[in-house]
Amino acid sequence: MAQSDTVDRILDAAEELFAERGFSETSLRMITSKAKVNLAAVNYHFGSKNALIHAVFARFLTPFSATLEQAFDELEESCGDQPPTLNQTLWALTESAVRMPQRNEKGISIFMRLLGLAYTQSQGHLRKFLEQEYGDPFSRFMRLLKAATPQLSAVDRYWRIQFMLGATAFTMSSSDALRDILQNKTGVETSVQEIALRLVPFLAAGMQAEDAMLVPPKGSRVSVA
Amino acid sequence: MAQSDTVDRILDAAEELFAERGFSETSLRMITSKAKVNLAAVNYHFGSKNALIHAVFARFLTPFSATLEQAFDELEESCGDQPPTLNQTLWALTESAVRMPQRNEKGISIFMRLLGLAYTQSQGHLRKFLEQEYGDPFSRFMRLLKAATPQLSAVDRYWRIQFMLGATAFTMSSSDALRDILQNKTGVETSVQEIALRLVPFLAAGMQAEDAMLVPPKGSRVSVA
DNA sequence: ATTGGCTTCAAACGTATGTTTAAAACAGAC
DNA sequence: GTCTGTTTTAAACATACGTTTGAAGCCAAT
């Protein structure tokens, strides 16, 4: 909580406000007044509002991507030459997120919401920044997913990965769910864990759904291409 | 395409720009210049920017919710006293969306993206408007889902429905996917159908995933609460 | 031809935004 | 204590926004 440093106070306030209201809807004046610093401080320390947004993401994402790469290293090593399973891959990602050291109680859920917003609000500069800075672990995750689902055609896998990302990003960015999570007085860490405990099986089952179900029910007006 | 009426030209332009850039990021000046109408026309015909947003949604959602209610009526009638299955319920929704008469080639995918944005960008007024105006068919869909998944606990069902909504809304609101869809020269209608053909089985499988998978793999640091 | 009700138009209004400025305050080194 | 570079501050800047205004244009009914 109590950092007296201006930069950190700005980052804390910005992180929270961005998560609550989105990027465009959060003004520098809201941020600086919440952080109790002068308006010009943002431009002095970060250069611009966009650079501040990048800094908010970098503060969490840089240590996280390091943790994730290490988790993938351990997983691949423990598997020998055969590729990790879908379940193992998903859990490696989940555990890396949960194990991240939290700045405060709301830590993870706030950042999950930010990640969801980053995906959804098509802010060109953010997308470019994230791809450039953290594209590597993401590509690696994709490669692991591919190796873990050899039974899927490329196009099936592409769409199902989209669905997975969607369920995850959306759940994390749902403000109602976030409110529920924050309301939960048993501590957020276990709440995020509980969501993950429910989400991962859902995703794994969806990824491994049988093609047979692709056919709509009898009498359907949706024709199979 | 070619409507000469000012109101429709504004709605068409707004619909497209909102889908491309989001609500806050689209200014009235962008809309009116794309629609080739005077800036003041929006406030004259709709009253405010928020009211324009509502009108964009109402133009699609009002006929859609009628179609959907009818589809649910038919489904429940054809099922007698036993409740419709999960697959039937999901397909009834999907087909209602696909069968909607399109204003132009991009029709459905644009509106799917708007629905995704509505859920994601936490615009208070929009959420309130949608709940108030179209809450009934949504509640009915929820009731059908509950009856179709009696094996799930209430909290499990709650979260899995969140995941379903997420996968759907996100996929539909993903601008990259949208671009792919629009690139597909075989016509958007079949593309949306193809996505639905892949999405519905994914969702159904996820909804019916077994609880046994709830336990993380051996050696996991995520403890079961 | 003139009226009266919509609709369009160019212009302006007030406000909020991100950013810049230049002076003041501060801190540590000498 | 004085100097030097960094940080903070209040004020202003330029721009973009949603909205309002009042005159002009239009078109059918009188």
From TrEMBL, chains A, B:
**Which InterPro entries does this entry report, sorted A to Z?**
DNA-bd_HTH_TetR-type_CS, Homeodomain-like_sf, HTH-type_TetR-like_transc_reg, HTH_TetR, PsrA_TetR_C, Tet_transcr_reg_TetR-rel_C_sf
Origin, by domain of life?
Bacteria
What is a single Pfam family found in this protein's UniProt entry? TetR_N
- The residues covered by the HTH tetR-type domain are 4-64
Return the Gene3D superfamilies for the record: Tetracycline Repressor, domain 2 (1.10.357.10)
Keyword DNA-binding part of the UniProt annotation: yes
The name on file for this protein is TetR family transcriptional regulator
Q: Organism source for this protein? A: Marinobacter pelagius
